[in-house]
Write a structure and sequence with these properties.
Number of helices: 9
Strand order of the largest sheet: 2-1-3-4-5
Distance between the termini: 25 Å
Order of helices and strands: HHEHEHEHHHHEEH
Radius of gyration: 17 Å
Number of strands: 5
Strand content: 15-25%
Length: 211
């Protein structure tokens, strides 16, 4: 893929889905992982997607979506909780690097969500800065409870949706890019057992692409 011709949000999304299908099938192509790509990207980067994902060690975006050097701009925190540094990083990728797609990547068996559910149920929270992570995940879990959701996958999906909404609500830069059609935001939920990433929510993509 030429770094001089960034893909549209829809094209970027299709590239990711194709890579995930290869990963699930056990037939990765490992694109853009050679010395030539290293040399090509040394002067500048043009990632076609921004990943805001959970820090879980099993959630390596370049592997899951079969991509290589210079393809993905990755930001990760426990439970994909968003603070100013996260928002600034995403805005940099979208506005300066002109990345056309932002992906919020959650997953099943998320420790941050499990810890938040336990804190709300037992009334005992973690100490230190882990407590801050739990506090930031709490609105998602409470919203899931209010909606009558009890299944883990449904609660994870609600947290992913909440994160997508939060990014667009708090970042005018990102929201304006989406409104102008220059970027889209997608929420994906990754399944640890089979490696598949399913669509939870999309903002700024045509319906035929996001389905």
């Amino acid at each position: 893929m030429s770094t001089s011709l960034p893909p549209t949000p829809s094209e970027a999304f299709e590239l990711l889905l194709a890579g995930n299908r290869r990963f699930v099938a056990g037939a990765p192509e490992h694109p853009n992982q050679d010395a030539a790509r290293r040399t090509e990207t040394a002067p500048a980067q043009s990632p076609f997607a921004v990943f805001f994902g959970c820090s879980d060690s099993r959630l390596a975006a370049e592997i899951i979506f079969d991509r290589g050097l210079g393809d993905l701009f990755v930001v990760r925190t426990a439970g994909h909780v968003a603070g100013p540094e996260v928002l600034g990083s995403i805005e940099y990728a979208v506005s300066v690097l002109e990345s056309p797609l932002v992906v919020v990547l959650g997953h099943d068996q998320c420790g941050a969500v499990a810890a938040t559910r336990a804190a709300l149920t037992d009334g005992v929270s973690a100490t230190g800065y882990v407590r801050d992570v739990i506090e930031r995940v709490t609105p998602s879990v409470l919203a899931a409870r209010a909606a009558g959701l009890t299944d883990e996958d449904d609660i994870i999906a609600e947290h992913i949706r909440h994160t997508v909404d939060l990014l667009l609500d708090r970042s005018r830069v990102l929201a304006d890019q989406v409104t102008a059609g220059r970027a889209a935001v997608v929420g994906l939920s990754y399944r640890l057992a089979d490696g598949s990433a399913r669509v939870v929510t999309t903002r700024g993509l045509p319906s035929e692409v996001s389905a």
